[in-house]
Input
Amino acid sequence: MARALLYGTAVSPGYAIGRVHLLHVAGMVEKRRIAPRQAEREQQRLRAASEAVREALREAMGKVPEDLAEYREVIAAQMELARDPKLLESAAKRIESDLICASWALDETINQLCALFDKMEDPYLRDRAQDIRAVGLRLRESLQGSRAAVAPGENCVLMAEDLSPADVMDMDFSGVQALVTAQGGPTSHTAILARGLRIPALVGLPDVLATVHEGDSVIVDGVGGVLLAGPEQDDLAQYTALRDEYTAWETRVRAAAHWPADTRDGVRVSVQANMERPEEAGEMRESGADGVGLYRTEFSFLRDVLPGERELLEEYGAVVRGVAPARVVFRTLDVGADKMMRAQSNAKEPNPALGLRGIRFCLRHRHIFRTQLRALMRVGVAGNVALMLPMISTLDEVLTVRDIMRDLHGELAARHIPHAEKLPLGVMIETPAAVLIADALARECDFFSIGTNDLIHYLLAIDRNNHQVAYLNEALHPAVVRSLKRIIDSAHREGIWVSVCGELASDPYGLALLLGMGVDAVSASPRFVPGMKHMLRRLDAATCMDLAYNVLMSADISASQRMVRERLQESLGSELAFHTTSILAHCHE
Output
């Protein structure tokens, strides 16, 4: 095939060279018109496909080992989706009204449902469209009488529209060198699987399945976010050397993962992990993380039934025990009117990103919030626990939460239930309002955590998922840099610590800038923790402080980029290329 470059999102770093193996390829969607008398037969074919897919998923769920118990929940949800009346009835009605075959009607219905999820602001929920696509692909295969091969072979690059836990249970990944999917994002099943397998992965390449074919030679650059199809001999030689260098570098980095992250001039930065499920505690410990800088609590609420206090207590207790004696920072429920799914019915909002989300939602629905706070206060007696409030924009929000916690203390004490009367309480700084009142917030908080993803989103008034304005997603914009400095200085003047838990923390250029501004802690996916600690050990805090000063004084983004690039090249040399995709690379995309 002709040489071609495709760009996607790198969700697991590394380099791989191999032959393409396609999964779930049922060919083109069958688009066949039918006569009215054939409608009932096509509807019956759809119902039969539903039962066949449910049985296949049931078999896959039976293969799930205990250490991947969370996969059972996903597969069970897909089993229900495979017979969901909204899905099947909508497709059946299309068959009858449009007089089209079952495959065509199903494809139209799946596309419509996925479009609704793709518009959601929350990246986790946006990635849940993959569950709909996964079920749709299996239904389509059943309708068209095709089955995907489950033996990828050696030295293969597995490609698919998307991957689901059921696919994982059906396959042997021992020969897979990399994963590439047309759909998905950083929190997709593909991303989680690849980081667990420690193989490179790219997601979000919509044209990949139309460009490559079974058996094609490809190169996957999981650092730069590039797929090179039809590589030439020079490409193969270059990337073979790069792959070998990266493998050796990663081995060295992982071997030193448990060493402290002390800079060359003796400044220690705490490097922590972000988690979303108790089962990730083992990966967190293996990564050498100093604790959990962000535990996302919302996923227990994205179900048909709201979790009770006992269920939450069990989940939070498992997290605390799993990482003890290290600290766990629990972010309280960060959902909004478009994010509660069937667990909570709310009116549609025209702009959910600026609506009832985070702490605003919690204070509106206090019965949900109080249940969560009670569970967190109770688990506080069992370990090192801190609470963090998302989407803060006023001081009154913090004061109201403290009042609620005092009230809950009285309730729990009256019932003689062991609990922590006071837990460290911090806030996520992710709105311009919080930046501008950071001094007042610091006097009422025990710590700050900067959510750089949303902060940049709101400061620059952009949707980072909108390709039309993606070029504006610039972390070295003077407004962003000066906001970071203001937040950090406000925290330190009041004697509280400040961490960064957004993507900027795992970026080499961002990490150097944050170090120079005096940040106390950073957190990221466990996959990136060893590399972040290694990089900090190679940097000089005083040099980074001088760099941060120069960037703060600059209004020229291009000049700031050059300064950061040159300074890091001096400290890291050729290994700079092995860190995650940098903010300097993003600005040219």
